[in-house]
Amino acid sequence: MPSWSELEQFLVSGLALGGVYALSGVGLVVLYRATGVLYLAFGAVGAMGAFIAFEMIQSGTPGWSAWIVCVLFGGVVTLVYGMIFGPPLAGRDPVVRAVATLGLTLILFGIMDLVWTVTGGRVRSISLPTDNGGFTVLGLQVTWTQVIALGGGVVLTVGTAAFLRYTKLGTAMRAMANDREITATLGVPVRRVEAAAWFGCGLLSGIAGIMLGDPSLDDTTLVFTVVISSLAAALIARLRSIPVTLVAALVIGLVHELLTPIQQLSNYQNMTPFVLAAVVLLVAARTQVMTRSREEG
User: Fold this and answer.
1) Which entry of 29, 65, 267, 295 is 20 to 30 Å from 179 by CA?
2) What pLDDT is recorded for position 177?
3) Domain map of the chain by residue range?
4) Which of 126, 28, 114, 29 is nearest to 78 (CA)?
5) Closest Cα partner for 247 from 42, 34, 21, 32?
């Protein structure tokens, strides 16, 4: 087992990673609550946006404009998909709606694998200006990128919770999550509310792509790391609670990174989201069963 001094630095990277998973998970939860669609193409959209940003930076485009393109790419692609396929899928089974988004994942994954297969030995990465600057806390080196990742996840969680509770659009999204047809009969512009949810989720996928685009861009890693980890956090929260999604994402990020220096377990760290989600869901199910049995008894 590594010493505590060896684990300390992984606390920082774990919290930062958890912050990215949190903003991704919150995007999935909000979209699911508004449309009933579990958006499994989240990681693929963010990954392709990151690849596009990488190519733009390599061609001499200023970094800030490439990052904006990455974020907007995620928003536009997700919005277009939602507006075209969202209405036909609205009345279908939740499993069908989730599986349908895998089609977009496979298309984008195929494009990335075809266009960006050969790197010529160079390392693909998106260097952010905040990667090099930072400060020290209790002997731990913290970069501004890590601060932004963690802070962004926390701020987004608090902001989204306030948005859903106190704004008209947020109230409409919560109403749609309860009953879409009744909400429509009350005069709520359902298509407009859905468009806002799709676009917002897409923007978050672009941000996640940028934050995870360093130190190396790999389509498989980006696609499945973002999807699996953020989906696990959302499932732990039962696709309902945004604060629980934040906590679950931070725990997943921490456990994932803390396993890195442990040689016996480092090869299994990618299983972290599966294991944590399975344990929490099993415990929750067992608790519900025991509670019902006590009430019936």
Assistant:
1) 295
2) 66
3) 4-115+139-296
4) 28
5) 21
